[in-house]
Amino acid sequence: MATARIAAVAGHFGADIARALDKLAGIMERLAADGVDLLVLPDATLGGYLGDLRNPDPASLPEAIDPDGPEIRMLCRMAGPMTVCVGYAEADGPRRYNAAVCLTGDGVLGRHRKVHQPAGEHLAYAAGDRFTAFDTPVGRLGMLIDYDKTFPEAARTLALDGARTLAALSAWPASVTDRASRMPNDRQARLFDLYDQARAAENQVVLASANQTGVTGNLRFLGQAKVVGPGGDILAKTWSKGGLAVADVDVDAEVDRARRVLRHLDERRTDTYHNLLRDKGVRHEAVVGRETKR
Questions:
Q1: What is the per-residue pLDDT across 211-253, written as a single tens digit (0 to 9) for each?
Q2: In the beta sheet, which residues pair with residue 179?
Q3: Mean pLDDT score of the chain, rounded to an integer?
């Protein structure tokens, strides 16, 4: 397609999945009438996020749902021709994942399980193990969840897989160790915007970033939904309260224009990045060595 209307949501979604679905029905109906082509919702839209990032309570974890269950099928019916990215807790036998699904009225287009886990999130979720782009009616797209976007390799992997748009779904809180009195001054608020702009600019792609708002447990979420162009320019943004960032973008034209002279993906010197994979292997070998000596 040519110009796509891209919308990223900043909003509060709690533990009540039925209530979230009811809320989404109204949002999606309104945005369909407004001609939105791609809607990116926050991480944990269905079921809410953890109330404590460092020591999550096993008795109050978000409800994990079947990735092919009635909730996902209902979202497909709501989506119609719109492409929708939404976060939820995914059940897989005894394991649970912090996950996202991209869908339309025709069904599921792509899935992602959060790979990078901050603080104590590993106590609540298993980790994903891959980043994969996929085709959608709005072009080739890849998804990142929360902390994934902190790591340049995550977005770069999706861009190398052909993604021209990145959907970043977050339940990103203000700093839990050094909280500022005003949200705009919070360290995590600054980093959240920085990562969104850097990941778009370094890969020369469009990035739509959604986030939770409000408070869950001892976490205060930042909001700051936005649409970022391939030069790192913010095309639309919300602040700390709920809202919608909407931008009309000809993704292919903008990405092609950004890459006309400087082509970051093509001009990499992979022969010089000698320690990108080796560093983890060295640490692993060191750990194995210590275990063997015990």
A1: 999 999 999 999 999 999 999 999 999 999 999 999 999 999 9
A2: none
A3: 94
* Residue in the structure block whose two tokens are 């608020």: 189
- Give backbone dihedrals phi and psi of 200, rounded to 5 degrees, phi first: -70, -45
| DSSP string covering the chain | --EEEEEEEEE---S-HHHHHHHHHHHHHHHHHTT-SEEEPPTTTBT---S-SSS--GGGPPPPB-TTSHHHHHHHHHHTTSEEEEEEEEEETTEEEEEEEEEETTEEEEEEE-----TTGGGT-BPP-----EEETTEEEEEEEGGGGGSHHHHHHHHHTT-SEEEEEE--BSPSSS--SSGGG-HHHHHHHHHHHHHHHHHT-EEEEEEE-SEETTEEB----EEE-TTS-EEEE--SSSEEEEEEEEHHHHHHHHTSS--TTTT--GGG-TTTTHHHHHHHHHHHHHHHH-
The answer, as to whether pTM is greater than 0.90, is yes
Taking 50 as the pLDDT cut, the residues of the chain under it are 282-294
Structure tokens that stand for 58 in this block = 């096993």
Two structure tokens written together for 64:
């994990």
Cα 91 to chain centroid, rounded: 19
201-to-2, 37, 112, 255, 266 alpha-carbon distances in Å: 21, 23, 22, 10, 14
**Nearest-angstrom CA–CA distance, 16 and 45:** 10
Phi, psi (degrees; rounded to nearest 5) at 206: -90, 140
Distance from C-alpha of 79 to C-alpha of 89, rounded to nearest angstrom: 20
Phi, psi of 239 (to 5 degrees): -115, -140
Residue type, 204: Q
Output the CA torsion sign for 172, 40, 125, 288: negative
> Per the structure block, which two tokens stand in for 173?
């809180």
